[in-house]
């Protein structure tokens, strides 16, 4: 049995480095949180002010009731929620097709999928807009959902296919003996066994659309239909110097994603996560 | 898509007397159609989605790059050959964008890779408790909003003594003589952008390496330690070689990520001061949506896409068919 003995000193050093790393990631968030407790922050609050605040929810209340913030929050929840469920379902369906079936041009199609993933998204925004415009879906959530779900299918297929291929084919036999077909195999075997991968994808999908700014800005024109990221940018434009408000709004905007992350965190697989790093 | 549907609707003609040579070919086609019939309900929606919202827009984008494109319905969009591409090389702004995009790649990829590997190895050490907690915290910046984190960085790097970074470096530590106006100068603004980029994305590298490290079978270490290897030698002779393929995967993705830098710049400096921190994607976006130069914007996008494609393609072979997904 191998054991590498590590002296107490080195253990201490390693822990110190890791905790330093955590501090670098966490302290900015804490500083942001403290700033939201500052009263009347019409100018940039001094660090000494920020460190001596007493927690209160005044700024949160102000922000929540101001500029239809609540409305935008619900809008974003609706958009990200539907997109997440749609993306998961469509991604799983398409990945299942690629993972379990043999058919002509399969690898060609898959390579084409891969190819499109390397191309910067901005190149496609203008033509995507014309497609939505031709469908008469500008300024509707349907247009936005189509773009998020349809545009995201390539990445989710790529992500889930690899995972589906690790599921042993023998598991299908019991369903086949019962006379079940491809749909039941998909529903009763592939989906339940892929919970970790689907959970990971749920995090990406939700946080991706929740935070999406550029496409939403081109598709949505109506003020009442705006999403949270757009509202945040506008809010920041109007109250440029009131950081307490801006961060109170920001923290409200962060909450759902952090919640989803914590809920699905258990299922977080090793996974490629290429989505996460690249498109934010 | 269009090529598939007619095939499916045409019933194979069995009544014809086939000649023996085309028999095999015909069988293959029939088999292919049957296979498509099976997979059809599962693949069709995804395929339509990808074709309509991804593949078609990309092709259309390439075509637009050769046009003086007008978005107004009915207006003409004359073809102008390579004019949009030539334009790029006369454009001062484009030089800045290319320079900054490359610089971002050269600066952030090595740092990101190194930090990611080190943190992953440390978290994976056998005596470390709360591995999952560390992983969760390191990954936290990845899932938070670009816009919010950009606000946060602008706030931390604010001018004067009230910015936390200036406060720490000047007032507390005395490392700098006077507070720095971080976002007002080209190079300090770039420094902020790079820091932002690394801070926001390094968790991804940590998570990938951590997964790879945990995938290395314990027996390999046991075997090596029986042979008398320990500590550093185990790391050098067992861990490093086994991480090879993951490293290539990580590097490719880091390069693509660094190349695709966009919200980092758009939300922090918006290209300023005077366009000196502009990068390719933010320039592409602004040319299209602020200046309505759709053709020119597309030409920039095509050039950028080709570069990324080239980099990925040449490296892809090294990964082979291994997938880390």
UniProtKB/TrEMBL annotation, chain A:
The chain crosses the membrane at residues 12-34, 72-96, 108-130, 142-164, 185-206, 243-264. CDD domains: TM_PBP2 (cd06261). It is found in: Cell membrane. It is a multi-pass membrane protein. It holds the Pfam family BPD_transp_1. The keyword Acetylation does not apply. Residues 73-264 form the ABC transmembrane type-1 domain. Keywords: Cell membrane, Membrane, Transmembrane, Transmembrane helix, Transport. The keyword Lyase does not apply. Belongs to the binding-protein-dependent transport system permease family. This is Carbohydrate ABC transporter permease. It comes from Fictibacillus terranigra.
Automatic annotation (TrEMBL), chain B:
It is found in: Cell membrane. It is a multi-pass membrane protein. InterPro entries: ABC_transporter_permease (IPR051393), MetI-like (IPR000515), MetI-like_sf (IPR035906). Keywords: Cell membrane, Membrane, Transmembrane, Transmembrane helix, Transport. Residues 1-27 are annotated as: Disordered. The keyword Zinc does not apply. The lineage of its organism: Bacteria, Bacillati, Bacillota, Bacilli, Bacillales. This is Sugar ABC transporter permease. Gene3D superfamilies: MetI-like. The chain crosses the membrane at residues 39-59, 102-125, 137-157, 191-212, 242-262, 294-313. Residues 98-315 form the ABC transmembrane type-1 domain. Belongs to the binding-protein-dependent transport system permease family.
């Amino acid at each position: 049995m191998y054991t590498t003995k590590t002296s107490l000193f080195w253990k201490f050093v390693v822990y110190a480095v890791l905790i330093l790393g955590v501090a670098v990631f966490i302290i900015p968030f804490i500083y942001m949180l403290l700033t939201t407790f500052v009263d009347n922050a019409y100018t940039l609050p001094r660090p000494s002010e920020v460190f001596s605040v007493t927690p209160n929810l005044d700024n949160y209340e102000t922000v929540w009731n101001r500029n239809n913030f609540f409305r935008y929050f619900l809008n974003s929840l609706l958009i990200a929620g539907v997109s997440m469920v749609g993306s998961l379902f469509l991604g799983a369906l398409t990945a299942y097709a690629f993972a379990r079936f043999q058919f002509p041009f399969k690898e060609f199609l898959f390579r084409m999928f891969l190819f499109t993933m390397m191309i910067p998204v901005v190149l496609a925004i203008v033509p995507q807009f014309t497609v939505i415009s031709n469908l008469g879906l500008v300024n509707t959530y349907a247009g936005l959902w189509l773009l998020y779900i349809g545009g995201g299918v390539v990445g989710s297929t790529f992500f889930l296919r690899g995972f589906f291929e690790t599921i042993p084919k023998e598991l299908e036999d019991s369903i086949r003996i019962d006379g079940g077909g491809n749909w039941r195999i998909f529903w009763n075997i592939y989906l339940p066994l892929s919970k970790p991968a689907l959970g990971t994808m749920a995090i990406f999908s939700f946080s991706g659309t929740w935070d999406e700014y550029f496409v939403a800005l081109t598709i949505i024109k109506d003020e009442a239909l705006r999403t949270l990221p757009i509202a945040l940018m506008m809010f920041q434009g109007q109250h440029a110097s009131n950081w307490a408000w801006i961060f109170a709004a920001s923290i409200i905007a962060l909450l759902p994603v952090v919640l989803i992350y914590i809920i699905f965190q258990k299922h977080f697989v090793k996974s490629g996560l290429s989505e996460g790093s690249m498109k934010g | 898509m269009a090529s598939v549907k007619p095939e499916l609707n045409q019933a194979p003609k069995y009544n014809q007397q086939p000649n023996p040579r085309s028999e095999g070919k015909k069988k293959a086609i029939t088999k292919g159609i049957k296979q498509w019939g099976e997979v059809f309900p599962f693949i069709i929606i995804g395929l339509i989605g990808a074709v309509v919202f991804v593949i078609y827009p990309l092709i259309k984008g390439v075509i637009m790059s050769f046009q003086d494109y007008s978005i107004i319905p009915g207006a003409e969009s004359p073809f102008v050959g390579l004019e949009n591409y030539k334009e790029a090389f006369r454009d001062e702004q484009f030089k800045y964008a290319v320079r900054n995009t490359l610089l971002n790649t050269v600066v952030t990829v090595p740092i990101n890779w190194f930090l990611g590997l080190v943190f992953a190895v440390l978290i994976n050490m056998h005596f470390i408790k709360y591995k999952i907690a560390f992983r969760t915290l390191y990954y936290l910046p990845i899932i938070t909003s670009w816009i919010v984190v950009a606000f946060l960085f602008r706030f931390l790097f604010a001018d004067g003594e009230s910015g936390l970074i200036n406060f720490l470096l000047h007032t507390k530590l005395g490392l700098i003589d006077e507070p720095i106006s971080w976002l007002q100068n080209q190079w300090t603004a770039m420094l902020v952008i790079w820091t932002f980029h690394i801070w926001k994305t390094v968790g991804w590298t940590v998570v990938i390496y951590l997964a790879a490290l945990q995938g290395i079978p314990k027996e390999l270490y046991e075997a090596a330690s029986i042979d008398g290897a320990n500590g550093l030698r185990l790391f050098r002779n067992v861990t490093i070689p086994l991480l090879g393929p993951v490293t290539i995967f990580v590097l490719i993705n880091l390069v693509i990520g660094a190349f695709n830098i966009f919200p980092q710049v758009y939300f922090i400096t918006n290209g300023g001061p005077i366009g000196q921190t502009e990068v390719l994607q933010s320039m592409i976006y602004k040319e299209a949506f602020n200046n309505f130069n759709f053709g020119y914007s597309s030409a920039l996008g095509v050039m950028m896409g080709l570069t990324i494609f080239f980099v990925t393609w040449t490296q892809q072979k090294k990964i082979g068919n291994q997938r880390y997904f």
